[in-house]
Amino acid sequence: MYNYVEDGDSKTTAYVEHDQEKSDAFMARIEAGEKIEADDWMPADYRQALIKLISMHGISEIMGALPEKEWVPKAPTLRRKLGIMAKVQDEMGHGQLLLRVAEDLMKPYGKTRENLMEDLLNGDLKFHNVFHMPTKTWADAGMVGWLVDGAAIISQTNMLDASYGPYQRALQRICQEEVFHAQHGESIIMALAEGNQYQRDILQESLNRWWPSLLMFFGPASAETTGSSKQDIMIKYKIRKSTNEELRQAFLSKYMPRVFSLGLTVPDETIRYDEVEEKWIYKQPDWDEFKQIIRNNGPRSKERLRLREIAYENNRWVRQALATEPVNV
Amino acid sequence: MSQVVETAEHAKKDATYFLALKELLFQLADDDLLIAFRGSEWLGLAPHVEEDVAYSSITQNTMGHAVMYYNLLEELGIGTADLLAHDRKSEERRNGIYLEKRNGEGNYLDEPYYDWALAVVRNYFYEAFKKIKLEAVANGSYKPLANVARKVLMEHHYHLAHWKLWIKQLGSSSDEAKKRIQGRVKEAWEEFADVLELGKHANDIRSHNLVSIGEEEMKDRWIDEVRTVLVEIPDGSLGKKYGSGRNGDHTQDLEQAVNTLAEVYNSDKTAAW
Fold it and tell me: Does the distance separating the beta carbons of B271 and A199 come in below 8 Å?
């Protein structure tokens, strides 16, 4: 039995097999902890959830290079220049790895990387909320490495045993590299925290500014907050283990003691760990703002997309020249 | 003093040797710093993701090479590597002028209309030359530098191969690509000559055997190399339209580069970053 299914926002359609017997066998493999490979049969909602997750992850790595890249040429010492260059290069590498995984998944829909880039530019493919934010000082270069990558490690470690083999294997490498990134960020932060008044001031100002974005990083606690969430399907198919809120709690438990030990504060006087409830109590970020940000209405969304658009348009002649036959790409 | 010089202390004993060595090291360091800086502005804007990964890897290596040369200058007591990279006036800098040229119109943060044809031609021309110069240095008299040159040459092989492939591919593909590459080759032909030179201390650099061949031979070898790759060699001899970076002549583009690469450094020169 075949169903005709729509592929997300795109007009592309494809025949996808729906077969109860195969679905049951597939779920049995998932339950048994087996890894699904690119050529294996998979239900359409599994494939679509993976495409959405991995293409967003991959594109976010690439868009994520842009805020940090602002500081690459400006890094204050030769050692920092080398460190941040290596770090941002890794992020581009992660983007490449992930786009390759997404490309395999999209193949049955006849979609390619070009389509992903076009979806990004026309607003159909979202990128992570943190990468819509401005960077104002060198402290932001440290903050992105320390707490943004720190948050990424927590959210990606949650998927290190993901049921989709190609993604799970890519994540092993990505997480290992992210640990170096967090150390790189921490090293920048430590130098600022131990530095002069100006350095400590830009550090605190940076943390204040990034705080709401860091809380938003893990997404809303439930679908009611923003109207949609793929958490449930992700957990059902063993793509991820924990909920958004569990991840946010893990982040707070790991980083709040470090924040306080550096003599820093966060812009939330109510934040505390409740021993009875065994969880962090904190002021919710503005989830309406979150919705605006991920709809490309964040403070730097347009500028970052514009950079990608210029690169895309400006290099069109190169892509055409590299194609084996003249094609209009 | 043309025998092997083993250490910085030894090099400092002969004033003309020391001066020639210093000039040569600044050329090597400043060339790599500037081309790596221009490369770092390209980050995230390359024609495709794979190229972004490759180009940023090359850029990172090249910046690492600059650091090694600045460290050698630091050992000679000229100043800390960071100070030499960030805090020298334009006229003190010794990079070839073509290497400081902006990547295209716009700024890396805002409307960067960068030209990949310039990136390909510039990097290929520079890497082809870097090989020749480093081989001459690797066989030269200053042992600490010869050791660094040998190390750099191992990585450099892949850099040159990368850009050679690009220029060959684009030079034999669409009419537009050929035209763009040819246009940038012609432009480079008018500007590249000072990169190939050793500056006003060329005679001392050669007579002290800091390099095993002189600048004329370096230039001839470079022309032989690019002839094997270029579809069409421009008419006329190589020029240095904006003067000689080896002697401290520079353009506004260097000011922009230095102001950017030292922006945070300059925000507080006493701070530990």
Answer: yes
